[in-house]
Write a structure and sequence with these properties.
globular; 6 helices; single chain; about 280 residues; alpha+beta; 11 strands
Length: about 280
């Protein structure tokens, strides 16, 4: 059992008359963090900073629960966490109180009451990631904070073709490792597509992928191999063959800076009957 998703203790399970279970959507710039999951003292993580803020509003739990453990340097605009706490004000006030105590790189975007048995990781129906590639022959210090710069232009039509290869249910053993030892490497991809836009001074390509789950570093591996194929360093059909045969391809990962967790989807039953549809958002 990971530190970020421990079993509920007796106090959390029983709750009090004014205690409620909340679901929060969180965004963060992961550049200066050693990933999401709390680590040893002195290591700055997203979870560690969030828990400090939660304690400032009276939270007494042992660990917040997260939908995913993003790697060092990976960003999020739609990470989901949950926590139990006593709060006798509207959710919007809770969002504001937490954000006052958070560092500039992290912000709570909304808060909703959910069922007492909600688990943001296990109850997720799908997760969506977006990867950003910028094309420019010269370093772009600001843009490269949240993207992978390529000096050569990948063949966009090849990117579109390779992206479609991954749709459906497959064994992705060639593209990542199971989060838990001995775990399944089979995943179902609902969306896998490339988009592009032209901006000054660089061109931008985006890869969007939604699945019922991801292997360790799977998205960065998918992006790297698709880029290598679109740049002519891998045969065009090599990704399909690797997917079907399970044979490994050349080593490599796209940089963490380009990756953002954009959304986590859940079934409607996670919400309290008297709170369904109610949501506090800060714009």
């Amino acid at each position: 059992m990971s530190a970020s998703n421990p079993p509920l203790n007796d106090a959390e399970a029983s709750g009090g008359s004014s205690e409620a279970h909340y679901k929060f959507t969180v965004s963060y710039d992961g550049t200066s963090f050693k990933g999401f999951q709390r680590q040893t003292d002195g290591v700055r993580t997203v979870q560690g900073e969030l828990e400090k803020a939660f304690r400032s509003v009276g939270w007494t739990g042992t660990a917040i629960r997260g939908a995913g453990r993003t790697d060092s340097g990976v960003h999020a605009s739609g990470q989901v966490i949950s926590a139990r706490l006593c709060w006798n004000h509207p959710p919007a006030a809770l969002v504001g109180a937490l954000n006052v105590s958070l560092p500039p790189e992290i912000a709570i975007q909304d808060a909703e009451r959910v069922r007492s048995d909600f688990d943001p990781r296990r109850d997720a129906v799908s997760r969506t990631y977006r990867y950003r590639i910028l094309i420019h022959p010269i370093r772009q210090p600001l843009s490269e904070r949240n993207g992978w710069r390529l000096s050569a232009v990948p063949d966009f039509e090849k990117l579109r073709e390779t992206g479609a290869v991954f749709l459906g249910t497959h064994d992705f053993a060639s593209f990542g490792s199971a989060p838990e030892k001995g775990g399944s490497t089979v995943r179902r991809i609902y969306r896998s597509r490339w988009l592009r836009s032209a901006e000054t001074p660089e061109k931008l390509f985006f890869y969007e992928v939604e699945a019922n789950g991801f292997l360790y570093r799977m998205v960065r591996r998918l992006v790297y191999l698709q880029a290598m194929a679109a740049l002519g360093f891998l045969p065009g059909d090599s990704l399909r063959e690797a997917l079907e045969s399970g044979r490994p391809l050349r080593a490599g990962l796209a940089p963490a800076a380009g990756l953002t967790l954009t959304n986590v989807s859940y079934p409607a039953w996670i919400y309290d009957s008297d709170e369904t549809g109610k949501q506090a958002e800060i714009f």
